[in-house]
Amino acid sequence: MNDQATNAATETFVAHRNLLFTVAYEMLGSAADAEDVLQEVWLRWVKVDLAQVHDERAYLVRITTRQSLNRLRTMKRRKEAYVGPWLPEPLLTAPDVAEDVELAESMSMALMLVLETLSPTERAVFVLREAFDVGYDEIAAAVGKSPAAVRQIAHRARGHVDARRPREAVSPGQARAALESFQRALETGDPQGLLDVLAPEVVLVSDGGGVKQAALRPITGADKIVRYMLGGIGKADVALAVDPTVVNGSPALLLRVDGEIDGVMAVRVEDARITGLYYVRNPQKLTHLESETPLTLR
Question: Taking the model in full, what pTM does it have?
Fold first, then answer.
């Protein structure tokens, strides 16, 4: 490929990079793996004869989907050996991501955990169709199925996800209000304040990856979670700092202990109360939080 062609390929790739990264991330739940996929996509893209490509965006999405599907299958073995619950790697996102309600919901910790229960092909079809409105013909080319089969897969995946997603999406403002109440109660060690903002059957999922202390199973029930959180914080003679942030398109909290990042807390909010808490403590999933630029819309 000559310099002019390389420059054209680079320009196109950069123009679509955020889109490709988001597709890979939503399929994999890992920013590090999504970056690896993009490297593979780039290596293939620079070898393509652009004169033969009619739709550059569709072509790049197709390569990204195929590479993500390949990686999903290898990640399955990794997750089977994982210590305790596995949560997606938190991804810093700019406020404009929250403005795209469907994209923000599809990136949320709660929904990405639901996507983990789909087969790799179902997940690819769901992500491309629901989050990015890709046409059935394009999806068919990406996953190696007929358009008719893709329609069936999309219908099945949507039904599976709809049965497990929050009853209704809340606005970022509502989520922020619940999170602010939670933050105040956590910082002051106020058990009643926590009980007021947590739904009775709230579930806490914590991911330490076998490196940091975390519950090896999800904890259900507001009383148990309050005891777990305040007991853990109360026993340690440390300085706790809790700062609001935005991860995966939704308001979240960044927790620091003695100045060092301890974890990211994402929430699921329904009817103004928190029904899900997702606490990522695995240091390997937090390494980019200080340095990465928040992801913007594609």
Answer: 0.90
Tokens of 3: 């310099």
CA dist 22 and 34 (Å) reads 8
C-alpha distances (whole Å) from 172 to each of 102, 115, 188, 222, 289 are 13, 22, 24, 23, 21
The candidate with the shortest Cα–Cα distance to 283, out of 232, 210, 218, is: 210
Residues paired with 264 in a beta bridge: 254, 280
Give CA–CA dist 282/278, Å, rounded: 12
Residue reference for tokens 């990136």: 107
* Residues 8-49 pLDDT 10s: 889 999 999 999 999 999 999 999 999 999 999 999 999 998
pLDDT confidence of residue 172 = 81
Q: Helices 136-143 & 147-162, crossing angle to 10 degrees?
A: 100
One-letter identity of residue 59: Y
